[in-house]
Amino acid sequence: AQPAVQSAIPDGPGGAAVAAADMVDAIVAYSRWPRDGSAVTLCVAAPSPLTARIAAGPLADGRRTQVQRHSAGALPAPGCDVLILGAASPAEQQRIARASSDRALLTISFADPLCRNGMMACIRESDAGMIFDLNLDAVARSQVRIDPRVLAIGRRRART
Question: How far apart are CA 120 and CA 107, in angstroms?
Answer without folding.
Answer: 5
